[in-house]
Amino acid sequence: MPRPAYAPPPVRTDHTNAFANHTMRVRVPDTLQRIVDVNPDYPPAIREALLRLRDAISGDAPLPALTLPAPDYEDWMAVLAPHLGETWQATTWFVAETYAYRLILEAVRWWETGRDPFLPIKAEEEQSADLWTMTAEALAANGPDLPPDERLGRLLIGALWGNRMDLSFPWSMAHGTAAAHDDLLVDDSEAIVAHLLAARGPVHLVLDNYGRELAMDLVLADALLDSPGAESVYLHVKFHPGFVSDATAADVWRFLRLAADRPDPVRRLAARLIAAFEAGRLRLVVDPFWNGGRFCWELPERLRALLAPARLVVFKGDLNYRRLVGDAIWPAGRTFADATTGFPAPLAVLRSIKSDASVGLPAALGSLNTADESLDWSRYGLVQSHLDAASC
């Protein structure tokens, strides 16, 4: 999937994009302070490392090189090579933001301890009654008694609005999972469901956030395993913690353990998914690509080979969308298929909008502009697809 020659440049963190600049000046430093606040038992050296990184980013220092030991050193240094000497607020946003979260792991020595710096935030979500009530209601309202097309269509939309439940993005969470009809700017769900029911093969879900979003994704995975033509479902999770609520393999297992102790129907969901895992029909895919600073135009061969036989690959969330479309604001007239040409399998995205990157929006809308304070972009969502395997 080579980068199309007509692809626009990615969003930058300087004055050319207000939201990206605000993210690096304010939001990421605030996240670093939040990590310090919710982990009061971190030793002084770790707290000081986090605060140094906070001040470097907010103060627009140059991007530093990754330090050793680091198992992902070669890949990150290759990504960083064109940007060394640039500053946090005058560089490519996708690289700056993903690298900032990688440096958080360096600061907390995650590779040595395995301690998730965001776990206290995730644990607070686990204790929310809303998490378990929403899961139970989704299961009760979308059971196997529904026709397969209706069930999958409803759960795709449920998984989309579950993406609003991002623990690092309060503007989006404030909208909840209920949505008005005009909140959905593009809706390819009918075509996606028809494709799912007409094809065979594994389905891959590239996950985004833990908590209520993961709950809706697992309800969707459960329905996919029960659908006509079902073979297996692959859940792609983050290689390491990132972006506050990004779902890791440990998060999936913690959710299932907690769900197994809840009343029916949540308990039965956990039992079905664990049984599917034991039978090899549910797989967890842990790959560093999903945490890195590269776009899908550089999808590694190991992932291309894994995804190629897929019936469908579903990307969840804003960051995964940015990775697909080069974190760019595409001009009017370019389609989602244009931006994802060469992807190795039929593709769909379920995205609650949290940044400017966009392609294939309605002509009347043009492109997103998060600097327009008269519009609340965080309420909107996209269900887009590129299902023609011959051109993927």
Q: Based on Cα principal axes, name the global outline.
A: globular
Put simply, the count of helices is 16
Task: Give the topology string: H per helix, E per strand.
Answer: HHHHHHHHHEHEHEHHEHEHHEE
Structural class: alpha/beta
* Total number of domains: 2
Short précis:
This protein is an alpha/beta fold. The protein has 16 helices and 7 strands.
Notable traits:
392 residues; alpha/beta; Transcription Elongation Factor S-II, Chain A; Rossmann fold; 7-stranded mixed sheet; 16 helices; 7 strands; 44% helix
Structure report:
This protein folds into 2 domains: 18-117, Transcription Elongation Factor S-II, Chain A (Up-down Bundle), CATH 1.20.930; 120-391, Rossmann fold (3-Layer(aba) Sandwich), CATH 3.40.50.10880. It is built from 16 helices and 7 strands. It has helices at residues 18-38, 44-58, 73-80, 93-108, 110-113, 119-126, 129-141, 148-162, 170-173, 189-198, 212-225, 249-260, 266-278, 301-307, 317-325, 336-339, and strands spanning 184-187, 201-206, 230-238, 282-287, 312-316, 347-352, 381-386. The protein has a 7-stranded mixed β-sheet. Helix 1 (18-38) packs parallel to helix 4, helix 7 packs parallel to helix 11 and helix 11 (212-225) crosses helix 13 (266-278). The N and C termini lie close together (8 Å).
